[in-house]
């Protein structure tokens, strides 16, 4: 059953179109990530959902109740939506306990117990209840902000780049913690982020915005493996794009003949591979490997995972192809090595 319906939402600021007829349906209890480059409209969409902005047209319906559209505009504080901002937005003069319980009536029955439960939920030690925000680390502050947002049991949680100010290791830990807490509480959530890896790992569904338009929407694995176009392919991760000729279920390209989806139109096209689909095998001395052949141009050492730049010379064109291929640290070739390149899985044919 659809929990949140975003129907043809549009928003402009003067001559600048921020959102152009956005349509998204979200299921209850799911986690959705909205991603896109700067200026794509993702923050504007989040502010419209929260009630901080008014759409020019379209409607917004949450759990059967119209929040915006058709002459209706429910104010932000009456929408039952929780928000966690990038900086946490905690009250500096209040303790952790008072920050978490800010939205709860001061003398409400069970208030202290509710605050204790929320602290346990976000893995905050009870001794922190009396501390002020400046006495907490960045990760602890975000946990307090999450607990405060959950205090009133919101129907929908909005996360506005809540991990971007944290160090890499802490960011990963917080992302997993927040996902676990939201899952346990059954709270539907929308995350706005510029971090593609964060979106893919956090969400059940990903919406890609570009220049105010919804480019693609679906499960993260589908978007990663089958992006609609070049820009989406590159935005969601490292992508190897090759010119190819399609015939039946084969694509002829610099790497030889690769398998593609069936039923595609024959002719010229662009195919995409992810770096992890390619494998390198160093040729034995004095022999030339079979299949696609390249020579290692450079190696970027990265510990357990390294990036190898391979040059492929082609007789049908003056300029060589250069491919970046991921290798584990124990198997990397050396610059100048002749290598065989094998492809695992299916190449994806882009729509344009």
Keywords:
single chain, 352 residues, alpha+beta, Rossmann fold, OB fold (Dihydrolipoamide Acetyltransferase, E2P), six-stranded mixed sheet, five-stranded antiparallel sheet
Description:
The protein is α+β, with helices and mostly antiparallel strands and 352 residues long. The protein folds into three domains: 2-233, 3-Layer(aba) Sandwich (Rossmann fold); 238-272; 275-349, Beta Barrel (OB fold (Dihydrolipoamide Acetyltransferase, E2P)). It is built from eight helices and 21 strands. A six-stranded mixed β-sheet has the order 7-8-9-3-10-11, sandwiched between helices. Strands 2-1-4-5-6 form a five-stranded antiparallel β-sheet, covered by helices on one side. A five-stranded antiparallel β-sheet has the order 14-13-12-15-21, with no helix packed on it. Helix 3 (111-121) packs across helix 4 (138-150) and helix 4 (138-150) runs parallel beside helix 5 (168-185). The chain starts with a strand and ends with a strand. Belongs to the ABC transporter superfamily.
Gist of the model:
The chain is an alpha+beta fold and 352 residues long. The chain contains 8 helices and 21 strands.
Helix content percent band = 10-25%
Overall domain count: 3
State the low-pLDDT regions, or none: none
Q: What is the total tally of β strands?
A: 21
Order of helices and strands: EEEHEEEEHHHEHEHEEHHEEEEEEEEEE
Provide the structure class: alpha+beta
CATH topology of the largest domain: Rossmann fold
Basic shape: globular
Please work out how many helical segments DSSP would assign. 8
Q: Which architecture of the largest domain per CATH?
A: 3-Layer(aba) Sandwich
First-last Cα distance = 33 Å
Query: What proportion of the residues form beta strands (DSSP E)?
Result: 35-45%
CATH superfamily of the largest domain: P-loop containing nucleotide triphosphate hydrolases
What order do the strands of the largest sheet run in, or round the barrel if closed?
7-8-9-3-10-11
CATH class of the largest domain: Alpha Beta
């Amino acid at each position: 059953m659809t929990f949140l319906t975003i129907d043809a939402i549009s928003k402009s600021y003067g001559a600048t179109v921020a959102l152009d007829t956005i349509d998204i349906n979200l299921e209850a209890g799911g986690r959705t990530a909205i991603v896109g480059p700067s200026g794509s409209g993702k923050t504007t969409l989040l502010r419209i959902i929260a009630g901080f902005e008014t759409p020019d047209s379209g409607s917004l319906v949450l759990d059967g109740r119209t929040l915006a559209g058709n002459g209706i505009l429910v104010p932000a504080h009456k929408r039952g939506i929780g928000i966690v901002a990038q900086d946490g937005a905690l009250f500096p003069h209040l303790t952790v306990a008072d920050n978490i319980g800010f939205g709860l009536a001061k003398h409400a029955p069970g208030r202290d117990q509710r605050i204790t439960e929320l602290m346990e939920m976000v893995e905050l030690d009870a001794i922190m209840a009396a501390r002020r925000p400046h006495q907490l680390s960045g990760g602890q502050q975000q946990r307090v902000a999450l607990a405060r947002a959950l205090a009133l049991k919101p129907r929908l949680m909005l996360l506005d780049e809540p991990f971007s100010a944290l160090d890499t290791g802490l960011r990963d830990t917080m992302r997993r913690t927040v996902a676990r807490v939201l899952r346990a509480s059954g709270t539907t959530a929308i995350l706005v982020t510029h971090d593609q890896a964060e979106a893919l790992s956090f969400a059940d569904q990903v919406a890609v915005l570009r220049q105010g338009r919804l480019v693609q929407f679906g499960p993260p694995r589908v978007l990663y493996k089958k992006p609609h176009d070049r820009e989406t392919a590159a935005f969601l991760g490292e992508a190897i794009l090759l010119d190819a000729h399609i015939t039946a279920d084969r694509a002829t390209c610099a790497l030889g003949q690769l398998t593609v989806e069936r039923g595609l139109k024959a002719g010229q096209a662009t195919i995409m591979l992810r770096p992890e689909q390619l494998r390198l095998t160093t040729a034995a001395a004095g022999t030339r490997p079979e299949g696609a052949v390249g020579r290692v141009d450079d190696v970027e050492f990265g510990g357990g995972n390294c990036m190898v730049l391979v040059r492929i010379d082609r007789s049908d064109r003056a300029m060589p192809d250069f491919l970046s291929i991921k290798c584990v640290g124990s198997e990397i070739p050396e610059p100048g090595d002749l290598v065989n390149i094998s492809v695992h899985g299916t190449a994806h044919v882009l729509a344009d």
